[in-house]
């Protein structure tokens, strides 16, 4: 576990010192969400109706945009090679890096989401559910996205490619995340959706580190 | 397993099979088309448009079949690390993608007269669309590397991840669709299949499947030959400078013998 | 007495045959120098020895046990120095080194870092961020990393790139000390690094023309035009 915390601490302090990354993700999220009223018109009813979907899609895109840097810089400067060669299981290190990615991108998004929900005129009944759903959904996005980020190491046009690979895999999280909020807005219990999201998160937690570590090892060959 | 998977064994085994398979494909599809277009009854509701089904359903089947095949090849390549598994997965992807696209296009053509719309966000259509995205992602990934082997390996890992994800996607799309079921009179199940329609359908499905194997064999042979050419180029056989004449002629001998022995 | 050996190693990069039929052996205190023209596979061989790259055939053994059987144990005993320095620009030299110490589970990390920085004469840079280092200083930081913690095997890919003559002397001393403690050093270099009687492994000897190799090993290919049987017909 030492290795897990060591890499987590290092990635967090890197993110803190470079700083801009987390801010950029949140800024992207806010700007994207702001575009929708321009597209569909400022009418409050329509915005309230589409708010949960808009917030989820924007969060998905924001989380995806930051994926590339999970491994890319470490790959370029040779750090990833040494991580693969350290006497700690690579799966654990991958998990540490994904957790750092979530703490620096997913968590700020969860905090920014209610603000955007407010601006989109979403009913306040949905706020708690929205945040709980994002709390369950965004870690799954980071975990699944890490596979894509590891697969494209060394590829041409990696950034565009990762979105093509990862977005179809994000669909379940989107469906249940937006579904949970919608159920809450309709006054129905969202427990079923949230449970399924928790299940997706657990499956991702159990399976994706192996796939990601395997992809990283391949990239090192 | 390994003995069978040797490329030279593959070439030897497929050589005699190929013409028979190609013949069977032609006969099956010709017979299927005859029954589908002429010798089967028209639907009392849909009229002649029902005949689109004979392309649409087999194409959908092939879309799924190819993806499963790709995932199995991917698993074999990751477990046994045999290059032939990678080549098969790689050769399958464009075929599967084409069938999936064909399924979507015929579905859309069928939907227009039947449902009055080119596209509905029906659970099955949406799942097929996502499957097409998965194919495109695979193809893009496999071709994004300078080293083809690295591309194939990354692709195999992706195909496996995708295969695990497909049931989850299918489940969530079904859920989403029941939640948002539009109030429509559309019968999404399609027509109940009459026995007289089953024969052409079965023929077409068999024909498409054997067509897939023909194309797969051709594509794998092509890839093996391309590798052969690259290997010979790397060996310096095509070095045409005069001062390398000795090395060149020796290599030419080796190459010549290869040609002669095929 | 540790024993590090490899037998009948064949390495393909992409579809290019780098070397074939290569064997080597080293015992505690040995140094092996890899020599060969560009593209002869010096880096590839070091990566095979580290376990980053699996050879197409043959195996690498430590005390008679294949390194592929227990990767973690092999990683724990080796230090690998590749071409990139892996120095993060925003972290100080000390913070950069700390991560590697923590990953190896080194006790008393700060003390070890001090000792390593002293050996490479960069102690005054401990608090400086990576981005302000010259390329020679970055290389020395990377070299300090391989002094962290216990190890029995150093795999050094051109350790002296970007270093001046004096620093090269320090590297020679590091290697001599490590060998005196019973370590095995395997290194590739373009300039002569002063190392006491190293075993020389000339990779050019193991280069095999693609065609011949394909004809000899049809069972390994993926690229083979014809099997030997067919060729004999």
TrEMBL record, chain A:
<dbReference type="GO" id="GO:0017004">
    <property type="term" value="P:cytochrome complex assembly"/>
</dbReference>
<feature type="transmembrane region" description="Helical">
    <location>
        <begin position="126"/>
        <end position="153"/>
    </location>
</feature>
<comment type="similarity">
    <text>Belongs to the CcmB/CycW/HelB family.</text>
</comment>
<protein>
    <recommendedName>
        <fullName>Heme exporter protein B</fullName>
    </recommendedName>
</protein>
<feature type="transmembrane region" description="Helical">
    <location>
        <begin position="160"/>
        <end position="188"/>
    </location>
</feature>
<feature type="transmembrane region" description="Helical">
    <location>
        <begin position="194"/>
        <end position="216"/>
    </location>
</feature>
<dbReference type="InterPro" id="IPR026031">
    <property type="entry name" value="Cyt_c_CcmB_bac"/>
</dbReference>
<keyword id="KW-1003">Cell membrane</keyword>
<comment type="function">
    <text>Required for the export of heme to the periplasm for the biogenesis of c-type cytochromes.</text>
</comment>
<dbReference type="GO" id="GO:1903607">
    <property type="term" value="P:cytochrome c biosynthetic process"/>
</dbReference>
<feature type="transmembrane region" description="Helical">
    <location>
        <begin position="46"/>
        <end position="67"/>
    </location>
</feature>
<dbReference type="Pfam" id="PF03379">
    <property type="entry name" value="CcmB"/>
</dbReference>
<keyword id="KW-0472">Membrane</keyword>
<keyword id="KW-0813">Transport</keyword>
<keyword id="KW-1133">Transmembrane helix</keyword>
From TrEMBL, chain B:
<dbReference type="GO" id="GO:0015232">
    <property type="term" value="F:heme transmembrane transporter activity"/>
</dbReference>
<dbReference type="GO" id="GO:0020037">
    <property type="term" value="F:heme binding"/>
</dbReference>
<dbReference type="GO" id="GO:0017004">
    <property type="term" value="P:cytochrome complex assembly"/>
</dbReference>
<feature type="domain" description="Cytochrome c assembly protein">
    <location>
        <begin position="22"/>
        <end position="180"/>
    </location>
</feature>
<keyword id="KW-0997">Cell inner membrane</keyword>
<dbReference type="InterPro" id="IPR003557">
    <property type="entry name" value="Cyt_c_biogenesis_CcmC"/>
</dbReference>
<feature type="transmembrane region" description="Helical">
    <location>
        <begin position="123"/>
        <end position="145"/>
    </location>
</feature>
<keyword id="KW-0472">Membrane</keyword>
<keyword id="KW-0201">Cytochrome c-type biogenesis</keyword>
<dbReference type="GO" id="GO:0005886">
    <property type="term" value="C:plasma membrane"/>
</dbReference>
<keyword id="KW-1003">Cell membrane</keyword>
<feature type="transmembrane region" description="Helical">
    <location>
        <begin position="20"/>
        <end position="39"/>
    </location>
</feature>
<keyword id="KW-0813">Transport</keyword>
<keyword id="KW-1133">Transmembrane helix</keyword>
<protein>
    <recommendedName>
        <fullName>Heme exporter protein C</fullName>
    </recommendedName>
</protein>
TrEMBL record, chain C:
<dbReference type="GO" id="GO:0005524">
    <property type="term" value="F:ATP binding"/>
</dbReference>
<keyword id="KW-0547">Nucleotide-binding</keyword>
<dbReference type="InterPro" id="IPR027417">
    <property type="entry name" value="P-loop_NTPase"/>
</dbReference>
<keyword id="KW-0813">Transport</keyword>
<feature type="domain" description="ABC transporter">
    <location>
        <begin position="4"/>
        <end position="230"/>
    </location>
</feature>
<protein>
    <submittedName>
        <fullName>Cytochrome C biogenesis protein CcmA</fullName>
    </submittedName>
</protein>
<dbReference type="GO" id="GO:0017004">
    <property type="term" value="P:cytochrome complex assembly"/>
</dbReference>
<dbReference type="InterPro" id="IPR003439">
    <property type="entry name" value="ABC_transporter-like_ATP-bd"/>
</dbReference>
<dbReference type="Pfam" id="PF00005">
    <property type="entry name" value="ABC_tran"/>
</dbReference>
<keyword id="KW-1278">Translocase</keyword>
<dbReference type="InterPro" id="IPR005895">
    <property type="entry name" value="ABC_transptr_haem_export_CcmA"/>
</dbReference>
<keyword id="KW-0067">ATP-binding</keyword>
<dbReference type="GO" id="GO:0022857">
    <property type="term" value="F:transmembrane transporter activity"/>
</dbReference>
<keyword id="KW-0472">Membrane</keyword>
<dbReference type="GO" id="GO:0016887">
    <property type="term" value="F:ATP hydrolysis activity"/>
</dbReference>
């Amino acid at each position: 576990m030492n290795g897990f915390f060591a890499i987590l601490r290092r990635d967090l302090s890197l993110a803190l010192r470079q700083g801009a990354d987390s801010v950029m993700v949140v800024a992207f999220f806010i700007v994207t969400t702001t575009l929708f009223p321009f597209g569909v018109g400022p009418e409050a009813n329509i915005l309230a109706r589409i708010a949960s979907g808009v917030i989820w899609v924007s969060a998905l895109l924001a989380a995806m945009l930051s994926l590339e840097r999970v491994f890319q810089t470490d790959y370029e400067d040779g750090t990833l090679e040494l991580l693969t060669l350290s006497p700690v299981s690579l799966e654990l290190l991958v998990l540490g890096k994904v957790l750092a990615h979530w703490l620096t991108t997913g968590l700020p998004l969860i905090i920014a989401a209610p603000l955007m929900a407010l601006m989109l005129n979403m009913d306040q009944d949905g706020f708690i559910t929205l945040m709980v759903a994002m709390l369950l959904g965004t870690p799954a996005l980071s975990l699944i996205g890490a596979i894509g980020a590891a697969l494209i190491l060394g590829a041409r046009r990696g950034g565009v490619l990762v979105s093509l690979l990862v977005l179809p895999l994000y669909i379940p999280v989107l469906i249940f995340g937006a579904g949970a909020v919608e159920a809450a807005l309709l006054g129905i219990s969202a427990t079923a959706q949230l449970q399924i999201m928790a299940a997706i998160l657990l499956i991702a937690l159990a399976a994706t580190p192996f796939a990601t570590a395997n992809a990283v090892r391949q990239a090192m060959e | 397993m390994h003995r069978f998977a040797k490329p030279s064994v593959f070439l030897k085994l497929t050589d005699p099979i190929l013409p028979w398979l190609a013949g069977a494909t032609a006969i099956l599809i010709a017979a299927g088309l005859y029954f589908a277009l002429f010798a089967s009854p028209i639907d009392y509701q849909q009229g002649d448009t029902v005949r689109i089904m004979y392309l649409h359903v087999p194409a959908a089947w092939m879309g799924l079949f190819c993806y499963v095949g790709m995932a199995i090849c991917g698993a074999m390549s990751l477990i046994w690390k045999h290059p032939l598994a990678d080549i098969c997965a790689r050769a399958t992807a464009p075929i599967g993608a084409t069938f999936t696209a064909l399924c979507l296009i015929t579905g859309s053509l069928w939907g227009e007269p039947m449902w009055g719309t080119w596209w509905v966000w029906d659970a099955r259509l949406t799942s097929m669309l996502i499957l097409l995205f998965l194919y495109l992602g695979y193809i893009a990934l496999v071709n994004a590397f300078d080293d083809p082997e690295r591309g194939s390996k990354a692709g195999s890992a992706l195909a496996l991840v995708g295969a695990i994800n497909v049931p989850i996607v299918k489940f969530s799309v079904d859920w989403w669709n029941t939640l948002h079921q539009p109030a429509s009179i559309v019968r999404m199940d399609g027509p109940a299949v009459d026995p007289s329609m089953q024969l052409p359908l079965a023929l077409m499905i068999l024909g498409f499947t054997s067509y897939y194997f023909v194309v797969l064999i051709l594509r794998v042979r092509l890839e093996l030959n391309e590798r052969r050419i690259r290997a010979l180029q790397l060996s310096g056989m095509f070095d045409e400078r005069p001062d390398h004449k000795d090395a060149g002629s020796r290599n030419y001998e080796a190459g010549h013998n290869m040609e002669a022995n095929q | 007495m540790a024993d590090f050996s490899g037998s009948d190693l064949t390495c393909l990069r992409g579809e290019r045959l780098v070397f074939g039929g290569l064997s080597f052996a080293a015992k505690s205190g040995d140094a092996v120098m890899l020599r060969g023209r560009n593209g002869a596979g010096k880096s590839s061989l070091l990566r095979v020895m580290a376990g980053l790259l699996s050879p197409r055939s043959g195996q690498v053994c430590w005390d008679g046990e294949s390194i592929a059987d227990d990767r973690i144990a092999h990683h724990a005993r080796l230090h690998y120095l590749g071409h990139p320095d892996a120095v993060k620009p925003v972290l100080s030299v000390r913070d950069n080194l700390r991560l590697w110490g923590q990953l190896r589970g080194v006790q008393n990390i700060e003390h070890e870092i001090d000792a390593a920085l002293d050996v490479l004469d960069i102690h005054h840079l401990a608090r400086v961020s990576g981005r302000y280092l010259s390329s020679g200083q970055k290389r020395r930081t990377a070299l300090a990393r391989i002094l962290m913690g216990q190890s029995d095997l150093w795999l050094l890919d051109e350790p002296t790139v970007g270093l001046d003559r004096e620093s090269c002397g320090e590297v020679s001393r590091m290697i001599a000390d490590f060998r005196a403690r019973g370590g095995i050093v395997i290194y590739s270099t373009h300039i002569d690094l002063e190392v006491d009687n190293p075993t020389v492994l000339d990779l050019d000897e193991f280069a095999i023309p693609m065609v011949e190799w394909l004809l000899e090993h049809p069972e390994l290919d993926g690229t083979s035009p014809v099997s030997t049987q067919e060729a004999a017909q």
